[in-house]
User: Fold this.
Amino acid sequence: MMRLFRLWRLCAHDLQLMWLALRHPGRPIWLLPAAVLLGLYAIDPLNFAIPALGFIDELVLVPLILHGLVMLLPAGIRGDLENSIAARRRATHF
Assistant:
């Protein structure tokens, strides 16, 4: 159960990175279509037809795919985004 919570904490950070990466001027061309496909996969009608499979998708597969997409970002862009998130946290926490 702790692994699942750790996965979701990582997913929250990856969502922040993905949001900022989609708005970054130097983002890769493949990022927007990949993010759209992941969003469509997350709300796939199969989730409504077979609830058990949808539950497994949303708890495990979607966060893993999201993390994989973030890891595929170029290191320079990912570093810039990490610095931006850290600066925002410092600014809000004094």
Observations:
- The two ends are 33 Å apart (CA to CA).
- The CA atoms of residues 40 and 67 lie 16 Å apart.
